[in-house]
Amino acid sequence: MIKDLRLICLLIFLGVFIKLHTSSAEDEMQFIYHGFHEGEAANLHLDGLAEILPNGLLQLTNTSKQQSGHAFHPFPMKFSMSSLNVTQPYSFSTSFVFAIVPEWANGSGHGIAFAISPSMDFSQAMAIEYFGLFNLSNNGVSSNHVFAVELDTIKTLNFYDVDNNHVGIDINSLVSNASAPASYFSNTEGKNKSLELISGDPIQVWIEYDWNKKLLTVALAPIGVQKPIRPLLSFPLDLSLVLLDNMYVGFSSATGSIASNHYILGWSFNRSGEAQSFEYSKLPSLPRSAKQRKKLWLQIWLPIIGVTGLMGVLGMIYIVRKIRYKELREDWEQEYGPQRFCYKDLYKATKGFKDRELIGVGGFGKVYKGVLPCTGAQIAVKKISHESSQGMREFVAEIASMGRLKHRNLVQLLGYCRRKGELLLVYDYMPYGSLDKVLFSNEQPNLSWDQRCRIIRGIASGLLYLHEQSEQVVLHRDIKASNILLDADLNGRLGDFGMARFYDHGAIPETTDVVGTVGYLAPELTRTGKATTSSDVFAFGAFLLEMACGRRPIEPERLPKEVILLEWVFENWKLGEILQTSDPRLEGSFLQEEMELVLKLGLLCSHTNPAARPCMRQVVQYLDGNAILPEVLLEDADIGIVAMSSQQSEKLNLPFPSSFISVQGIFSDS
Ligand SMILES: *[C@@H]1O[C@H](CO)[C@@H](O)[C@H](O)[C@H]1NC(C)=O
Ligand SMILES: *[C@@H]1O[C@H](CO)[C@@H](O)[C@H](O)[C@H]1NC(C)=O
Ligand SMILES: *[C@@H]1O[C@H](CO)[C@@H](O)[C@H](O)[C@H]1NC(C)=O
Ligand SMILES: *[C@@H]1O[C@H](CO)[C@@H](O)[C@H](O)[C@H]1NC(C)=O
Ligand SMILES: *[C@@H]1O[C@H](CO)[C@@H](O)[C@H](O)[C@H]1NC(C)=O
Ligand SMILES: *[C@@H]1O[C@H](CO)[C@@H](O)[C@H](O)[C@H]1NC(C)=O
Ligand SMILES: *[C@@H]1O[C@H](CO)[C@@H](O)[C@H](O)[C@H]1NC(C)=O
């Protein structure tokens, strides 16, 4: 009896054990390793030269010649639809950080491959150009079922390699199905930049497969640089034809007659969605290179110099710092305390206002990217030189009012700092820069219609906040695509409040100088000089047309009837062909009703009669489909609507299309 009980207990125990074990293996659909410390679940399957260094760094190969090393996740992943009983089988993504440190500066071999393979046994595979993945007889054989992305540092003619510094997509073969020289698209600079795989510096790779589009993309960038919005490789591929049900994921690396240390610092994988991003500070560091050792040696000399002239050096440093970080502070500024930044912090954030951190240059100064040392927050610092301190007090009061404006579709002004002859404004950092650059430049990916609609709604809600929901009525007075910035999620944010005016609710705006940008200026402004919420709505209308038509309000190089966007859209509307004016780059991929709504709303907002323009509250209702756009108002507008005629802009004698800036325009970027 007792024996039976024991047996039953044992069986239950075993049952639970097996259950736990299988479920943990099934849960292995995603993981992230910041280094591969022993005990920290990593437990990778290693062979060849591969080993894990004491600080958690995975070293795939050292500089032993013609060897290979592998590191694989120890459990197989399910990669087929039937075994998962799902309809969306393959979407996966992985990201890893690698570094290749060559033995000699004059060459490296051979490279690293991320691989998905039915087996972890690579004992039959060859090193050198075969990357430890295949051998002479099975290279190119479809029964391998191996998918790999190679980071190749040798040009192998047999495999038609493009150069000795490329990235390739390999299907069952080392003859890449797609490859390109290593480079990355810099989101901030809007251009491709080349990359040296063997630089010895950590580089991050993103590999993503979208089963819906059957598209594989590979991107890479130096560590710390944002994931490029344009991948290096985009390859249409049906992975279900390559992979089997149970597959292992990992890395393979090989050396040749020239050898390198191949390292992996971190690895993130998600079998069913976007891989988690790294906390870079948690990644292990690389062993010191010869270059760094030399640096260290120099550092030994520093104390000696220090001893000989300690007092002198310290004194010098003190004076230099004092001059470097000197600020201008006056008593009246005390009330703005929290918005005042310390120059030292801004100096450190922008690495001393290095040109490398420069993200924009405008008529009024330069804009630098920075990271605040205390919080790690990304900021943009606008550095404006000003001669006199006249009007500075009012000016800072205005900055303070702006700092109080808080809305997710406004670029947040965080604060300011003053030095002699210099004013610094601190904003949230907007990684994608200004909307007009993204919208009009063909180098950047063109925004889809859905993205544009989201930006339009965002800006409408930001403007509604300024007009009706904030403490005071805020007139922006310079709404246009170049004053709208895109945040990391491609949300539009209204920026550049250099011309903004604040009024109490119910107060009547005063006559002021006419400011704004030609093409966005409401016609009554030029007569009365009174900026109102309706003149902001007019400019918003011009912005709507820009978004729908993908062009600027005035383009002198076009056919005469198309030069003025507003007139052209209006003429087409009268002919019943308003959709003809939609952005040709969208190739018709938009909802017709939505496009029509935006175009017609753009016309209505641009009505000559300010009273006929909707207010921002109505605009938001029309955009959200909570009210129907009245067509009648458009119908009796036919003379009026041709508001911004070319004569008028000539009469104003404005330099066109650059903006016209008032005294307050000190913030203006354009
Ligand atoms: C590389 O590692 C292997 C085994 O880990 C070792 O035998 C060999 O000496 C190492 N080679 C170099 C050049 O350090
Ligand atoms: C697969 O899913 C269907 C419906 O969701 C279900 O009826 C079936 O039992 C599942 N099969 C397996 C093997 O889990
Ligand atoms: C690279 O440099 C090393 C030492 O500086 C030298 O021994 C080797 O021959 C060089 N290789 C090539 C391909 O130039
Ligand atoms: C190549 O690898 C395959 C499978 O790993 C093995 O069956 C075959 O014998 C190998 N061929 C050679 C020439 O090593
Ligand atoms: C990849 O290239 C090989 C030839 O190198 C070819 O046989 C194979 O069909 C290609 N696969 C795909 C999916 O393009
Ligand atoms: C940048 O690189 C991508 C991917 O290789 C390429 O398609 C694109 O044409 C390049 N753009 C420029 C401006 O060189
Ligand atoms: C993996 O992707 C799925 C689906 O997108 C997501 O729900 C999950 O949070 C992701 N896992 C991690 C660790 O980010």
Helix amount: 25-40%
What's the CATH first level of the largest domain? Mainly Beta
Strand content: 15-25%
Question: Unreliable runs, pLDDT <50, ≥5 residues?
Answer: 7-27, 638-670
What CATH calls the topology of the largest domain is Jelly Rolls
CATH-derived architecture of the largest domain: Sandwich
Distance between the termini: 91 Å
Tell me the radius of gyration.
Answer: 31 Å
Structure ligands: 2-acetamido-2-deoxy-beta-D-glucopyranose
Strand tally is 27
Structural class: alpha+beta
Write down the overall mean pLDDT. Answer: 81
How many separate structural domains?
A: 3
Protein name: non-specific serine/threonine protein kinase
Family: In the C-terminal section; belongs to the protein kinase superfamily. Ser/Thr protein kinase family. In the N-terminal section; belongs to the leguminous lectin family.
Keywords: ATP-binding, Cell membrane, Glycoprotein, Kinase, Lectin, Membrane, Nucleotide-binding, Receptor, Serine/threonine-protein kinase, Signal, Transferase, Transmembrane, Transmembrane helix
EC number: 2.7.11.1
Describe the structure.
- This protein has 670 residues and is α+β, with helices and mostly antiparallel strands.
- It contains 15 helices and 27 strands.
- Strands 1, 3, 4, 7, 14, 15, 16 and 18 form an eight-stranded antiparallel β-sheet that branches.
- Strand 25 and strand 26 form a beta hairpin.
- Helix 8 runs antiparallel to helix 10 (533-549), helix 8 (449-469) runs antiparallel to helix 13 (616-623) and helix 10 runs antiparallel to helix 12.
- The chain is flat, with a radius of gyration of 31 Å.
- It binds 2-acetamido-2-deoxy-beta-D-glucopyranose (7 copies).
- One 2-acetamido-2-deoxy-beta-D-glucopyranose binds next to loops.
